[in-house]
Amino acid sequence: MSLVKYKSKRHFNETPEPEGKKAKERSKLIFVVQRHHASHLHYDFRLELKGTLKSWAVPKGPSLNPKDKRLAMMVEDHPVAYATFEGDIPEGNYGAGHVDVWDHGTYEPIDEDGEVITAAEFNRHLHAGSIKFRLKGKLLKGDFALVNMKKDEKTWLLIKHKDKYATDEEYSSEDYAKKSSLAYTATRNKGKVVKKK
Ligand code: MN
Predict the structure, then answer these.
(1) Which domain holds residue 117?
(2) Are 115 and 132 in contact (CB under 8 A)?
(3) Tens of pLDDT, residues 39-86
(4) 115 Cα to the center of ligand 1, angstroms
């Protein structure tokens, strides 16, 4: 868990994103999902582990439908302070666009049988390419898995487990996005139409 990559991609005199530093390990772990309209709209799924946020970019966003296996590309670890970041990343900067918190809360690392495990064990599962966790968010609740596709280190799938929080209805994270997020995207899309003319 290192922030070297995170820092090397950003100029903190130009972006409002937190420079952050490695945080102390805590027993209560947080997760956050940020809706990020950069060059492409995606959702960043982040789990606190060992003082940083392990991060995946999920193009379609998370789903509460267990049938949806959402592609999740692992990206660089982010500082824990990033969990509350919202705002505009100016053009010319890495990830330029708009970031909003879509959901946040705490999580518990769990094993195959749904038993709570230690962060150290969870970290071993992460390196083995398969983790399970119990989310306690406002939108995302219950058990989920992130599974490495074994194609490379970066390609994972985010999957909801069947439990009382799961749905068999079609699920779109955009339906739960903040009005301000959708307004930003509408403005960007409008811009695109104008440019095409
Ligand atoms: Mn992003």
Answers:
(1) 4-16+29-163
(2) no
(3) 999 999 999 999 999 999 999 999 999 999 999 999 999 999 999 999
(4) 31
User: Which residues are 135's β-sheet partners?
Assistant: 107, 142
The residues facing 41 across adjacent strands are: 37
CA of 56 to the centre of ligand 1 (A): 8
Please indicate, yes or no, if residue 171 is contained in any of the structural domains: no
Answer whether 81's CB lies under 8 Å from 14's CB. Answer: no
The answer to whether 189 and 97 are in contact (CB under 8 A) is: no
83 found inside a domain = yes
Q: How far is the CA of 113 from the centre of ligand 1 (A)?
A: 32
Cα-to-centroid distance, 61 and ligand 1 (Å): 11
Structure token pair of residue 36: 């990020």
Tokens of 124: 């071993």
pTM of the model: 0.94
